[in-house]
Design a protein that fits this description.
- The chain has 343 residues and is an alpha/beta fold.
- The chain has 10 helices and 18 strands.
- The strands form 4 sheets. Strands 3, 5, 6, 9, 10, 17 and 18 form a 7-stranded mixed sheet that branches.
- Helix 10 links the parallel strand 17 and strand 18.
- Helix 3 packs across helix 4, helix 3 crosses helix 9 and helix 6 runs parallel beside helix 7.
- The radius of gyration is 20 Å and the shape is globular.
- It starts with a strand and ends with a strand.
- It binds zinc ion.
- Zinc ion binds next to helix 2.
Length: 343
């Protein structure tokens, strides 16, 4: 089968597109004929170094994806051959204390597609049936693929971690990125007030058109001061953050006393000052989050059935164009997901 795989670490010179062995389905697994995947920052991280993530080269790239069921157990109860499905990329043990309480994302042996094992930028992927979910009606393969990482991550951040309420205000940094746009859609779907930031006016305009209530250009304005002005000096209830060091200080100053900051990324650096005095005096809640669990995926997909939630696709590329697609993600110019079609 054709796949995009890493032969080393560095720039796009280590990204190869060519033949790889087709996976052999084990009992309990579903073999999926992949149709689309979308790129995530972690794809760049794996290409650049993959440091701290146990993996073996060559390894097929790609974390999220959607396709059709090619092969399943004869007694598979929920999925049929030919059915349109999307993937949850976290394969956990299903038995440890974390898995037993429905938190497979905390499982000590969790293994992610495209990080610890071969990923989704391939014609076929075989994975446990519980990681395979029917696609929402009317979604393209690109849109469905995008749900499995970004929307799932935003869902866990907003609803499981921050427990966002409809009357609350949420501040979302770096609108244009996949998780940030997903958080905007989900926050508005939940009835909350959403303030977004970007350094790009065009992205802010598009976010406002998508339903953002207010927009702040972080290149021109002090974000924390602007937020306090917009909220009558109070601050926001929830901050959704994946930019890291560059905005952490603003996040800490923009949140209301007793508010919640949820972080799932650190693109601009992971060691900002902790500002402990502010954290304990103002009783701030700092919440870490990564991806989401199978039950959160179910909840997200039920929410998607209503039609109000649909990932934004920035651009769509063929597998052979992957290096250019990776460049587009790396440049940060995208608005929404950079998708790859797997025909
Ligand atoms: Zn486990």
């Amino acid at each position: 089968m054709r796949a995009a795989y890493l032969t080393g670490h560095g720039g796009n010179e280590v990204v190869c597109v060519g033949p790889r062995p087709r996976p052999v389905r084990a009992p309990g697994e579903v073999l999926v004929r992949m149709r689309a995947a979308t790129l995530n920052r972690v794809d760049l991280y794996m290409r650049d170094s993959g440091a701290g993530i146990t993996h073996r080269l060559p390894q097929i790239m790609g974390i999220d994806g959607a396709g059709t069921v090619e092969e399943a157990d004869a007694d598979e109860p929920l999925l049929q051959v030919g059915q349109r499905v999307l993937l949850h990329p976290g394969i956990s043990c299903g038995r440890c204390e974390f898995c037993a309480r429905g938190e497979g994302v905390l499982c000590g042996t969790v293994s992610y597609l495209g990080e610890h094992r071969d990923g989704t930028l391939a014609q076929y992927v075989s994975l446990p049936a519980r990681n395979v979910f029917p696609m929402p009606e009317g979604f393209s393969f690109e849109e469905a693929a995008a749900l499995g990482v970004n929307h799932l991550t935003a869902w866990r951040m907003l609803f499981s971690k921050a427990r966002l309420q409809p009357w609350e205000t949420v501040l979302i940094f770096g609108i244009g990125g996949g998780v940030s746009l997903a958080a905007l859609q989900l926050a508005k779907w939940a009835g909350a007030h959403a303030i977004v930031t970007s350094r790009d006016d065009a992205k802010l305009e598009r976010a406002l058109a998508m339903g953002a209530d207010q927009a702040i250009n972080g290149a021109r304005e002090d974000v924390a001061k602007a937020v306090l002005k917009l909220t009558g000096g109070r601050g926001v209830d929830v901050v959704i953050e994946n930019v890291g060091a560059a905005v952490w200080g603003s996040a800490m100053r923009a949140v209301v006393r007793g508010g919640r900051i949820v972080t799932c990324g650190a693109t601009s650096g992971d060691q900002p000052p902790a500002d402990l005095r502010r954290i304990f005096i103002r009783q701030l809640n700092i919440l870490g989050s990564t991806l989401g669990d199978l039950h959160e995926m179910n909840a997200l997909l039920r929410a998607c059935a209503g039609g109000a939630i649909r990932p934004v696709i920035d651009s769509s590329w063929t597998l052979d164009e992957l290096p250019a697609a990776l460049d587009r993600l790396e440049a940060g110019a995208q608005f929404g997901k950079v998708a790859v079609r797997l025909e």
